[in-house]
């Protein structure tokens, strides 16, 4: 009888460990915050250049733009990590390595929350990040412009990507007066390894002057930003026949001013930004000396997403909305080479976490550029989870 009782107790313990171990003593791991989004589109090109590649007929395709997977977890006292993976399709020369859908790191950093009362100021919070961190301004603009439609203006026109490897610090100002974000990064962007010794130092100040008001302008944020950087010369190692190695860096500065409002009824943004950079020419030889000139590129951009029925009646929720965007980009201040992007459409919320749009995009050269005119009809879709 005693043997059977012990046998029954052993079986019960295997099936239900809580009989032997109290709930409070069971080991538990840190909570995982998992989220993400998936988006894509159907596109139909109507411009002459696209038709010329397909026998005079308009090419069209279904495309999966991105799948972003976000993982956030605590990492000790005041610490946490964020890992965001970017699932995308290899194109161009990269497809020779793997011609299909692949995964790469978009963000991956450790964050340490120093204090919520810096220097004794109530509400002045400070944190630091190290790893593959968010760019000085791109993620801020993305909080206004929906990324599933396409990248924002500074990315579209080659200012920089949305992330890079380096270190960053975020100061949150008291009384909801905004934030200050500072970064030191490699400068080669998250899609490439570091390729020179120079670093980019950048900062932005997002000021919310009406944050404590009750009106629509409480969401207004004014954001000046600046990135001071350099890149290596093409001749940094010298070579046969060259005058010698070029060790000094080439200027690679970016600066801008963004202002935006964010409300369900109306979200809008406008910016003026500049790329200031040195351009090399020549072969660094006696016969073809190296020459450097400075080039300034100007960007003016604006966009708006509006729900007209909610503007007329704020108490009535509407799934329908309209949007538009306009970019004017002058690549070279000496040649006036420029392009213009015009974009407009309508969107419909299938539910609070899924949206579809029907939109039209036109990119065309304005003055002296080799940009090929493009006209595309899109159906975009996105789902958040």
| Share of β-strand residues | over 45%
* Unreliable parts: 9-24
Mean pLDDT: 90
- Enumerate how many helices there are, as a single number: 5
Biggest sheet details = 16 strands, antiparallel, barrel
Task: Tell me the strand order in the biggest sheet.
Answer: 1-2-3-4-5-6-7-8-9-11-12-13-14-15-16-17
**What is the H-and-E element order?**
HEHEEEEHHEEEEEEEEHEEEE
SS-derived structural category? mainly beta
Measure the end-to-end span.
Answer: 56 Å
- What integer value in Å does the Rg equal? 26 Å
What characteristic shape results from the CA principal axes?
Answer: globular
Helix content: under 10%
Number of strands: 17
Written account of the structure:
- It is a single chain.
- The chain has helices at 2-15, 48-52, 138-142, 153-156, 308-312, and strands at 33-45, 60-74, 79-89, 101-115, 125-134, 163-172, 178-185, 200-207, 221-228, 230-231, 250-262, 266-281, 291-306, 320-330, 338-351, 354-367, 374-384.
- It has 385 residues and is mostly beta strands.
- The chain has a 16-stranded antiparallel β-barrel.
- A hairpin with a 6-residue loop joins strand 16 (354-367) and strand 17.
- The N and C termini lie far apart (56 Å).
- Residues 9-24 have low confidence and may be disordered.
């Amino acid at each position: 009888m005693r043997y059977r009782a012990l046998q029954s107790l052993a079986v019960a313990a295997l099936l239900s460990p809580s009989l032997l171990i109290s709930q409070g003593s069971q080991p538990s791991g840190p909570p995982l915050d998992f989220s993400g989004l998936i988006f894509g589109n159907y596109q139909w090109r109507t411009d002459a250049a696209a038709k010329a590649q397909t026998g005079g007929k308009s090419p069209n395709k279904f495309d999966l733009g991105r799948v972003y997977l976000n993982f956030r977890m605590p990492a000790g006292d005041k610490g946490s990590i964020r890992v965001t993976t970017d699932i995308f399709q290899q194109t161009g020369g990269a497809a020779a390595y793997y011609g299909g859908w692949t995964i790469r790191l978009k963000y991956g950093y450790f964050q340490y929350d120093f204090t919520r009362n810096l220097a004794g100021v109530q509400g002045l919070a400070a944190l630091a990040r190290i790893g593959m961190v968010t760019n000085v301004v791109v993620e801020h603009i993305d909080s206004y412009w929906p990324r599933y439609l396409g990248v924002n203006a500074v990315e579209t026109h080659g200012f920089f990507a949305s992330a890079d490897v380096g270190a960053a610090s975020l100061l949150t100002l008291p009384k909801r007066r905004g934030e200050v974000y500072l970064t030191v990064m490699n400068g080669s962007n998250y899609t490439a390894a570091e390729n020179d010794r120079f670093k980019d130092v950048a900062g932005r100040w997002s000021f919310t002057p009406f944050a404590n008001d009750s009106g629509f302008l409480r969401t207004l944020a004014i954001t000046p930003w600046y990135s001071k950087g350099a890149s290596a010369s093409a001749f940094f190692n010298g070579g046969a026949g060259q005058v010698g190695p070029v060790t000094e860096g080439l200027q690679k500065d970016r600066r801008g001013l963004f202002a935006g409002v964010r409300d369900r009824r109306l979200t809008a943004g406008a910016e003026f930004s500049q790329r200031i950079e040195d351009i090399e020419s020549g072969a660094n030889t006696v016969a073809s000396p190296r020459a450097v000139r400075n080039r300034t590129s100007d960007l003016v951009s604006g966009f708006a997403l509006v729900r007209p029925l909610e503007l007329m009646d704020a108490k009535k929720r509407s799934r329908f909305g309209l949007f538009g965007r306009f970019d004017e980009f002058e690549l070279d201040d000496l040649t006036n080479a420029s392009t213009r992007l015009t974009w407009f459409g309508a969107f419909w919320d299938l539910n609070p976490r899924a949206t579809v749009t029907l939109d039209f995009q036109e990119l065309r050269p304005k003055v002296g550029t080799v940009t090929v005119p493009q006209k595309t009809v899109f159906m975009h879709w996105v789902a958040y989870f």
